[in-house]
Amino acid sequence: MSSLRLLKEKSPLVICITNDVVKNFTANGLVALGTSPAMSEYKEDLIDLLRYAGGLLINIGTLTAENWKLYQDALKIAKEYNVPAVLDPVACGAGEYRKKVAQDLITNYKLSAIRGNAGEIAALIGENVASKGVDSAVVENIGELALKANKELNIPIVVTGEIDAIAVDGKVKLIKNGSAMMSKVIGTGCLLGAVVASFVGLDKDVMKNLETAILAYNIAGELAEKQPRATLPGTFKEEFINALYTISDSDIEKYKKVEEYV
After folding, report:
1. Which run of H or E residues covers position 181?
2. What is the mean pLDDT of each run of 10 residues along the chain (262 residues)?
3. Which of 42, 68, 129, 229 could form a disulfide with 119 if both were Cys (CB 3.0 to 4.6 A apart)?
């Protein structure tokens, strides 16, 4: 069974601890795709909810000392219930405090995947890539960056940019789908982290699950951009949610642009 069909059949509960700017957009995007999101940020509530969850997103965009403790508590509870957790290390290349938090979560807790842009992933492994806040410069060899991060951190890696790279167990796939309009809407990257958390634990084939997650997301962006007036950010945002709702396996098969990185 395809990962997309499996997602829609299971409709997993996905707990999203994410930044304040994107909560509504993230919830709507996940519902459209077929999951059941919950924006829970209280330890006792997480103890109750995570036992039923199919995924957990930790997005460090709204970073405080209290939230750092919340991330730690959530990851401990997720491990207890064997819930796959995804880290989105937002802007960890922009300052030492964010980098310290991300490295703590990577070193001391169980993660099923990390999703970040090139600057963020590079920062996690001690490489310098020019960045400005949450934005990242273009990396010449994104496949090599993903592979190196996967090997050094021993965690599946998703690096996003003009080309996306997925690295799992030393194997890398490059995905060349997507829309330039996605960068014109705040929260598309953060929503992608939640989508990755929705897919990563569907079954044991992590590469297949992550590949489907990125393809479904990016191709939905391409389909949205083709709609009337969708070269305007407000219209694109609405059409993108619509496309996540209608995206199908046949769309993925028809439009996918995937290469093995050698």
Report:
1. none
2. 95 97 97 97 96 98 96 98 98 93 98 96 85 60 97 98 96 98 95 98 97 98 98 98 98 98 82
3. 129
